[in-house]
Amino acid sequence: MSQKLPNMLESTIQKIREMVDVNSVMGEPIHTPDGVTIIPVSKVSVGFGGGGTDFATSKSTENPFGGGVGGGVKVTPLCFLIIQDGNVRMMPVPVPASSTADRIVEMFPDTLERINGILDKKSGKTGE
Predict the structure, then answer these.
(1) pLDDT of residue 83
(2) Which residues, at least 6 apart from 20, have a Cβ–Cβ distance to it below 8 Å?
(3) Sign of torsion, CA 46 72 18 23?
């Protein structure tokens, strides 16, 4: 097992490096015809692990090796930097609701506004 596991880990790390570079976090700038530059910004999460062992046998002087390595990468968009006329604005990317409770909380302001609109119409108030 002298170098088999370290070689497997190094190979996995190298493949992750090839997949994820600085352009995964700060994306390539997008230039529009009207002079606006948009730069996507993301969060990159990386995980990997591995393990192995030598199995002793009575027939061989060299122990057979068994091992495995795995890795994963997740890229989550966070925001866009918008550069226009020397000004920089950040436009966040909304995170989708992951549960029913999150969806209800997300919908609450819009629902409350609609209810207020209905009540205002019934009471004869006009929008200001």
Answers:
(1) 93
(2) 44, 46, 73, 75
(3) negative
CA angle 103-109-113, nearest 5°?
135
Question: Residue 55's pLDDT is what?
Answer: 72
Share of the chain above pLDDT 70, in %: 86
Going by C-alpha positions, the residue among 79, 85, 78, 76 that lies closest to residue 37 is: 85
Residue with tokens 């190094």: 10
Backbone angles phi, psi at 9, to 5 degrees: -65, -45
Say whether 85 sits in a helix, a strand or coil. Answer: coil
Tokens 């996507």, residue located: 40
Q: What is the pLDDT of residues 65-99, one digit of tens each?
A: 788 888 888 888 889 999 999 999 999 888 776 67
Asked if residues 25 and 44 have their Cβ atoms less than 8 Å apart, the reply is yes
- Cα dihedral sign for 29, 32, 37, 41? negative
Encoding tokens for residue 82?
A: 């918008």
